[in-house]
Amino acid sequence: MPPPKPQIVRVIDLETTGSAPPAHGVLEIGWQDVALGADGRWELEGEGGNLMVNPGRPIPPITQAVHHILDEQVADAPYWHDVARRVLDPYPKRLALAAHRADFEQQFCTPQLSGGADWICTWKCALRLWPDSPAFSNQVLRYWRKPHGIEHERGLPAHRAFPDAYVTAFHLRDMLNEASLAQLLDWSRQPGLLPRVRYGPDRGKDWREIDEESLAGFLTDRDPDVRFTAETEYARRRGGGAVGRPSLQGSLL
Asked: What residues does the Exonuclease domain cover (predicted)?
């Protein structure tokens, strides 16, 4: 009997010249695996890594100010199509890929490059599992949650591909130990369910605290996360749909 296939999810992080391909290109890709152990618990697996990528265009100063990658540092690097597949679709095949705000990574990591992989968005899952966090960026979650076992220096500098993937992997590990892989994938396919109102007179309030008139105004909001959250709360008040912030117990049933 062949040995069972390893149960692994690969966390991905990209640094790019901007947010809108094909006008913008990838500069760096980092990764860190999270695997299911024999004891039924998920933990980080292996050393992870990173690769520099030639984006085929100059790096704008506005993005250099974020990641501090120089044109000369990627001038001799391989192009994206030469490196992406071996990182995104390695052997043995991963159960899924994951990223913090995965919609961004998916713009560059197309199904053709990822082998049609499913994606977990750790930002969307954090909204569901840890709604009391003061904010939901990768780094705020890091310092608010203080994940067990994280090596502070290994997660630095922020806004570089491997350190960010490493930090995200700790969030993913803890999410997988609280909710099922199937649940995280389901949440990731939906818009973000926001625990608090983002802007306006009710900014900072729990969605359950705002009045009907204010809620109705958000039902046609241009932001899909705001609109989805308002629709969910609207349905809850009328006896249908899930509560805006479902309990962890309910999410596991």
From this structure: 8-181
Does 194 reside within a domain? no
Pair type for strands 119-121 and 96-99: parallel
The parent domain of residue 238 ranges over 207-252
Residues sharing a CB contact under 8 Å with residue 248, sequence separation 6 or more, in sequence order? 129, 178, 179
pLDDT of res. 239: 85
pLDDT in tens, 121-175: 999 999 999 999 999 999 999 999 999 999 999 999 999 999 999 999 999 999 9
**Residue 198 within a domain:** no
Is residue 35 one of the residues assigned to a domain?
yes
Domain count, the chain: 2
195 in a structural domain? no
* Per-residue pLDDT band at 249 (split at 50, 70, 90): very low
The predicted structure's pLDDT at residue 19: 93
Print the SS3 string covering the chain. CCCCCCCEEEEEEEEECCCCCCCCCEEEEEEEEEEECCCCCEEEEEEEEEEECECCCCCCHHHHHHHCCCHHHHCCCCEHHHHHHHHHCCCCCCCEEEECCHHHHHHHCCHHHHCCCCEEEHHHHHHHHCCCCCCCCHHHHHHHHCCCCCCCHHHCCCCCHHHHHHHHHHHHHHHHCCCCHHHHHHHHHCCCCCCECCCCCCCCCEHHHCCHHHHHHHCCCCCHHHHHHHHHHHHHHCCCCCCCCCCHHHHHC
Q: How far is CA 117 from CA 93, 156, 231, in A?
A: 9, 28, 29
Domain identity same for 181 and 218 = no
